[in-house]
């Protein structure tokens, strides 16, 4: 039997009502000089799950609703094995002069995923 999270209902048996219990909210976007935009969003899957924050890289003309299911560049949460942190400081994103995405994030966050390149774009991280 597979373990399921609040946001992953897996393969529900036939006749079982499936519902996405998570909500997604876009917090910020930053556009590159090339063809991309970075989007910061928060995922909320209910009172007991904590918040998951992520940054996605997508084509400039993509809408947030189309992009949140893609693999995030970085994915972090306020939940750790020891419990919840106080609220995290916001993730800040910008493109530098070399068209590199710079992501600043709260160093207390629990990191789930972190990539140094996405869609051939270099990524630089600045914990604060």
How do the strands and helices of this protein lay out in sequence?
Layout: E1 23-31, E2 36-44, E3 51-59, H1 64-67, E4 74-77, E5 79-80, E6 83-84, E7 92-95, E8 101-105, E9 110-114, E10 117-118, E11 121-127
Parallel strand pairs: 8-11
Antiparallel strand pairs: 1-2, 2-3, 3-4, 4-9, 5-6, 7-8, 10-11
Structural notes for this entry:
This protein has 128 residues and is mainly beta. It has one domain. The protein has one helix and eleven strands, in the order E-E-E-H-E-E-E-E-E-E-E-E. Strands 1-2-3-4-9 form a five-stranded antiparallel β-sheet, with no helix packed on it. Strands 7-8-11-10 form a four-stranded mixed β-sheet, with no helix packed on it. A two-stranded antiparallel sheet has the order 5-6. Strand 2 and strand 3 (51-59) form a beta hairpin. The chain is globular and about 40 Å long. The termini are far apart. 20% of the residues are buried.
